């Protein structure tokens, strides 16, 4: 087990390093000049060169990379090209907002996926089971932004139950819940439908296992056998799929934050791209990459805990 943890940590660190190289050099070779973009076409070449030196973009790329990656992992992400303010506080503030939104989206997705997928599997040959499967299939086909617009139209514009946009900190209590409700619901609906399909497939596979047939042969009711012996085995693939959906939730949050005017990583990324603020773009993209890799690492470490059979395999 200890060797497996060390190996997973080594792969995680190596992947983070490779990802930092890819993020930095891909964004650095994009056409355009940040200094020229900020000063405009009327600026003289001397003014542009002076700003290049001030921003540090006139130095060799390896030097820029070492300075950026060292600062990123020590909390100094540099100075924004657009606002001339430190990048780290802006990214960390936006990161807190995005994590709250993604956590809300995961909660909504799990609340939808687990009962819907379980019922669709248990009642697979019944009309209601077919209906549950159809509902989950329909949910997959609805884009996040469309779900957000529909929720705004119904619950914000028509019913006036929730605000149509904006954000409130968790300390605001009920106001925070009112602001996060619709974005989290829009983010979690589609991913909940996807997870429901995987839940159905995982539960159906477990229900066909020999140990489930043995439990039923001993007189245990199907529902009781599933709850006592089946769900834990079904959780292993579901946890893996949930970690993959975490990346989709972060990507979907970019659109949802724009629709609901939420000041998270997504909206900051869109604004930074528009301003050609490459240092901000690099830091935000790297934060997302590290988050996704960290979640995958935690899932890799959690799977052998849930299923002891995997310990010998690792």
UniProtKB/TrEMBL annotation:
Where is the protein situated, by its record's location annotation? Cell membrane
Taxonomic superkingdom: Bacteria
Alphabetical list of InterPro entries matching this protein: BPD_transp_1_N, MetI-like, MetI-like_sf
What Gene3D superfamilies does its record include?
MetI-like
Query: Which keywords has UniProt assigned to this entry?
Result: Cell membrane, Membrane, Transmembrane, Transmembrane helix, Transport
Look up and give the membrane topology term.
Multi-pass membrane protein
GO molecular function list: dipeptide transmembrane transporter activity
Domain called ABC transmembrane type-1: residue spans: 95-303
Query: What GO cellular component term, any one, is given?
Result: plasma membrane
Transmembrane segments annotated in the record for this chain: 99-122, 142-164, 176-198, 236-260, 280-302
The record's listing under Pfam families reads: BPD_transp_1 (PF00528), BPD_transp_1_N (PF19300)
> PANTHER family in the record, alphabetically?
DIPEPTIDE TRANSPORT SYSTEM PERMEASE PROTEIN DPPB-RELATED
What is stated as this protein's family in its record?
Belongs to the binding-protein-dependent transport system permease family.
State the protein's name. Answer: ABC transporter permease
């Amino acid at each position: 087990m200890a060797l497996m943890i060390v190996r997973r940590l080594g792969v995680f660190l190596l992947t983070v390093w490779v990802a930092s190289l890819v993020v930095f050099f891909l964004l650095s070779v994009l056409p355009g000049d940040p200094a020229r973009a900020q000063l405009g076409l009327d600026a003289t070449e001397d003014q542009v060169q002076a700003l290049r030196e001030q921003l540090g973009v006139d130095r060799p790329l390896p030097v820029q990379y070492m300075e950026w990656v060292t600062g990123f992992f020590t909390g100094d992400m540099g100075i924004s090209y657009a606002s001339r303010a430190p990048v780290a506080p802006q990214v960390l503030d936006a990161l807190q907002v995005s994590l709250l939104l993604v956590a809300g989206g995961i909660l909504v997705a799990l609340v939808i996926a687990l009962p819907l997928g379980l019922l669709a599997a248990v009642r697979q040959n019944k009309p209601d089971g077919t209906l549950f499967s159809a509902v989950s299939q329909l949910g997959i086909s609805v884009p996040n932004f469309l779900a957000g617009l529909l929720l705004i139209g119904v619950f914000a514009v028509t019913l006036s139950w929730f605000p149509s946009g904006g954000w409130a900190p968790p300390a605001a209590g009920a106001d925070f819940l009112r602001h996060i409700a619709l974005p989290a619901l829009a983010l979690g609906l589609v991913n909940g439908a996807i997870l429901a399909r995987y839940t159905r497939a995982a539960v159906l596979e477990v229900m066909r296992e020999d140990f489930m047939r043995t439990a039923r042969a001993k007189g245990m009711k199907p529902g009781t056998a599933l709850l006592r012996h089946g769900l834990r085995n079904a959780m292993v693939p579901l946890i893996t799929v949930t970690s993959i959906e975490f990346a989709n939730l972060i990507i979907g949050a970019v659109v949802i934050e724009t629709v609901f005017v939420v000041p998270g990583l997504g909206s900051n990324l869109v604004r930074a791209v528009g301003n050609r603020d490459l240092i901000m773009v690099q830091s935000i993209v790297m934060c997302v990459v590290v988050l996704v890799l960290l979640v995958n690492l935690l899932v890799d470490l959690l799977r052998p805990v849930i299923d002891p059979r995997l310990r010998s395999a690792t």
